[in-house]
């Protein structure tokens, strides 16, 4: 990339040409004024827009509390002494490790509501314009970071706005591809809707302007290479010709950065499990003990009991199995599959199968939560209880580390991303049943760390098989758990240091 010194020389050359033209016309005052103005602009840009190599902006046009991968980026950057501006919506509560980190500054942006007047396309266009103006204003106030690390999706209007700000600030733009925004939009509008076609065109054009790209699977990396022409060409664009008086030649780069669990995701000790269950029992009935303790010194939840005389915590005899799933309650997760499988599981027990009762916990927030809660209310189980809590950032890893089995219903809109919820479950050595899609094999190994199913009938049979000898330590469920314990899987910090840090150190 051409440096600032060359940009100054280029601008002074232009100023000289203008001045010579003005002088030849006898306009000495105009000559002096133009030269002074251009010199002022150059000096101002040298002072204000010189990137701070120790400053990185991490941007999410969404709820920061529900964007764990980007908060992990922020924590990793701070660990390497970068100052971080973490920009996004302040919705869900962030983890205390982020809130208490002196090197991370939270920069909130407001979520823009669409107008309720006019055609839908007009409402959407107005929202995008307002959001773009707000985002540009916020980014211009955050200083001059050496990099802006942007989550996509959502990329409209954030990719174009961020690229423009990077041109002005002389920052490098990194896009972290979690999925494609247009494929998510197609779930609501249909693949042939004009808005979806426009979003795809926008994402392809502006996505290729990034200096670097990270993605979550090798399948996505290959798709970016073959269909989006990212990481296949050297592009020559006068990126700063108008704004900065220089041009640059830069390479596209797509790098697979798999989601990995941070160290907070691990198996939860039994005493901490008990405290968590007792806390949840105050609000959610499925966690309450089924029977009262005969001894006043014994405190019980449905899963555990604490003997206050000895301080020992044990599992309750004949306890139910704890099944957990997490979701954003969106169209790419069909929870009717799980509900139908639970109906079959209930019928297995009614038909005489020796199976434990279940407590099914589905965590998360999202637009379809009310719809599925309405379906759950219509179910009348005798052996299964379902609750749908929203857990704080500190509680979620503890519950995963306390569960017996995880279920994942994430079905990628593009078929190219992997569910982070499974990554977190594996970090807690929690076996998983996951619904099949194209690149799931990059994460879930069938019959090794879990099972893959295609429909509700297969899921029901898998639940029956896995819980048939619960909680026997020789069960297949415990074999999967042991495989996860012995896998010595890479953690986020190690993966980030190997993959991202070299990019930042060698721009």
Give the strand tally. Answer: 18
- Number of helical stretches of at least 4 residues: 18
Tell me the fraction of residues in β-strands, as a range: 15-25%
Derived from helix and strand composition plus strand pairing, the structural class reads alpha/beta
CATH homologous superfamily of the largest domain - what is it? Glycogen Phosphorylase B
CATH hierarchy, class of the largest domain: Alpha Beta
Protein model, in words:
- With 507 residues, the protein is of the alpha/beta class.
- It has 2 domains: 49-231 and 252-260 and 495-505, Rossmann fold (3-Layer(aba) Sandwich); 320-488, Rossmann fold, CATH 3.40.50.2000.
- Helices cover 41% and strands 18% of the residues.
- It contains 18 helices and 18 strands.
- The chain has helices at 4-24, 28-48, 68-79, 96-99, 120-141, 158-169, 181-189, 194-207, 218-226, 270-281, 336-350, 369-377, 395-400, 420-427, 456-466, 476-486, 492-499, 501-505; strands at 52-63, 83-89, 104-108, 145-152, 172-177, 212-215, 234-237, 248-251, 254-256, 298-300, 304-307, 312-315, 321-326, 358-363, 384-387, 405-408, 432-435, 450-453.
- Strands 3-2-1-4-5-6-9 form a 7-stranded parallel beta sheet, sandwiched between helices. A 6-stranded parallel beta sheet has the order 15-14-13-16-17-18, with helices on both faces. Strands 10-11-12 form a 3-stranded antiparallel beta sheet, with helices on one face.
- β14, α12 and β15 form a beta-alpha-beta unit.
- The longest helix has 22 residues, at 120-141.
- It is globular and about 70 Å long.
- The termini are close together.
- The relative contact order is 0.09.
- Belongs to the glycosyltransferase group 1 family. Glycosyltransferase 33 subfamily.
- It is a single-pass membrane protein.
- It holds the Pfam family Glycos_transf_1.
């Amino acid at each position: 990339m051409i440096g600032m010194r060359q940009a100054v020389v280029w601008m002074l050359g232009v100023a000289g040409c203008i001045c010579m033209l003005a002088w030849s016309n006898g306009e000495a005052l105009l000559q002096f004024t133009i030269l002074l103005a251009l010199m002022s602009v150059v000096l101002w840009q040298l002072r204000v827009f010189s990137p701070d190599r120790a400053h990185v902006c991490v941007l999410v046009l969404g709820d920061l509390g529900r964007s764990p991968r980007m908060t992990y980026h922020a924590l990793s950057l701070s660990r390497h002494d970068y100052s971080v501006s973490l920009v996004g919506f302040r919705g869900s509560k962030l983890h205390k490790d982020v809130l208490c980190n002196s090197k991370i500054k939270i920069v909130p942006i407001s979520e823009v509501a669409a107008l309720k007047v006019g055609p839908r396309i007009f409402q959407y266009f107005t929202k995008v314009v307002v959001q773009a103006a707000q985002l540009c204003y916020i980014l211009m106030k955050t200083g001059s970071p050496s990099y802006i690390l942007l989550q996509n999706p959502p990329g409209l209007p954030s990719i174009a706005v961020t690229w423009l700000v990077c041109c002005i600030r002389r920052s490098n733009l990194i896009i972290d591809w979690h999925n494609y925004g247009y494929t998510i939009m197609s779930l609501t509008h249909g693949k042939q809707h004009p808005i979806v076609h426009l979003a795809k065109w926008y994402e392809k054009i502006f996505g290729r302007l990034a200096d670097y790209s990270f993605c979550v699977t090798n399948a996505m990396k290959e798709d970016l290479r073959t269909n989006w022409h990212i990481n296949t060409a050297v592009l020559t664009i006068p990126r700063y010709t108008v704004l900065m008086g220089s041009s640059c030649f830069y390479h596209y780069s797509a790098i697979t950065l798999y989601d990995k669990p941070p160290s907070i995701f691990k198996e939860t000790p039994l005493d901490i499990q008990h405290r968590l269950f007792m806390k949840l029992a105050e609000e959610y009935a499925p966690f309450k003990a089924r029977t009262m303790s005969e001894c006043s010194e014994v405190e019980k939840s449905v899963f555990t009991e604490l003997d206050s005389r000895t301080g020992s915590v044990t599992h309750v005899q004949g306890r139910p199995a704890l099944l957990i799933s997490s979701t954003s309650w969106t169209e790419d997760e069909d929870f009717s599959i799980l509900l139908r499988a639970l109906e079959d599981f209930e019928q297995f027990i009614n038909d005489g199968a020796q199976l434990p009762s279940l407590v099914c916990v589905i965590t998360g927030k999202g637009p379809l939560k009310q719809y599925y809660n309405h379906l759950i209310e219509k179910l009348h189980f005798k052996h299964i209880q379902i609750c749908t809590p929203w857990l704080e950032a500190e509680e979620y890893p503890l519950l995963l580390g306390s569960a017996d089995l995880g279920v994942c219903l994430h079905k990628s809109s593009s078929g190219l991303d992997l569910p982070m919820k499974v990554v977190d479950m594996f970090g807690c050595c929690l076996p998983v049943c996951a619904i099949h899609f194209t690149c799931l094999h990059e994460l879930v190994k069938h019959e090794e760390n879990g099972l893959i199913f295609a429909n509700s009938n297969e899921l029901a049979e898998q639940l029956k098989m896995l819980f048939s000898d619960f909680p026997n330590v020789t069960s297949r469920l415990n074999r999967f758990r042991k495989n996860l314990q012995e896998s010595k899987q890479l953690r986020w910090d190690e993966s980030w240091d190997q993959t991202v840090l070299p990019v930042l150190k060698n721009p």
